[in-house]
Amino acid sequence: MSETGAQLFARLEGRRCLKDIEPQLFPEDCGPLQGDIVELHGTEGTAKTEMLYHLIVRCILPTKHGGLEAEVMFVDTDFHFDTLRLVTILEARLAQLAAGAASEKHPKEGTEEEEGDEETVKACLRRLFVVHCSSSAQMLLSFHYLEGWFSSRPALGLLVLDSISAFYWQDRSGGGESVPRQEANLRKCAQLLDRLRRDYCIVVFATVHAVMRNYGSSEASSSTAPRPCEAPSPSSSSSSSNFRRWSTVVDFDKPYLCRAWQRLVTHRLVFSKSDILKGRRPVFSVACTTTRTRGVKRSSFCIADTGLQFL
Questions:
Q1: Cys-Cys link to 167, which of 105, 124, 136, 154 (CB 3.0-4.6 A)?
Q2: 15-100+113-310, what's its fold?
């Protein structure tokens, strides 16, 4: 399929900028720009998927309700996607907005307000599309299929992968002793994602299960002067080499996916769960680093019935 320069401009100019998707999560002026790839890295139970719900709600909410009014494609490889949980968070957000404006509303408008919220929820959900994948080969085919969606829907600005590492052990077993064969499908997925994010100016959020322990990190935590985390390889370049400067965050923060993926990552969020409780709820921490700044943005949050709350 060919198109003129004018057609290309008309298609891409409608792509939403997601730089301000969550200012409390990213360093100042370093939110994800069009074409950026954000990795959410952490062990099981560190609230990575809850963070995705929080960001998705921010995207699909209309601008008049403080959202970005952007469409989202969610690729579910872990089969953990919970529509009811997302709707609960969405309704809670709308209720908070309604409560803030309650003093300006006439009492008789209550029923109309509820009907309006229901229509708003439906409109928001129409901006969300979900694809399920059960293998890395199926994920690769899905990416090829999704290219048509990105080319025809300018409002579709965010691709969410939960998770990009779901088939790591499956591929490692199926590839035998050959590392290139083990990484073949994920490498092709990374190459295709690279083209999609460049050609269609989309932002990608992808979760990664932390399975590789960073022993250098453990040694650093026991000393008085913490050292940077271990780099994937002295020969790795681009964005992956920029992450060598990170301070110790958790033991299981070592990148392990193929270098084709590591080179694409522009932002890395490392999640951990602390022993601290806030109102009987566990407190989670996230450290964000990007290829654009030397600093580390740290933030804490807890999970309530109504969604994620930054502390």
A1: 136
A2: Rossmann fold (3.40.50)
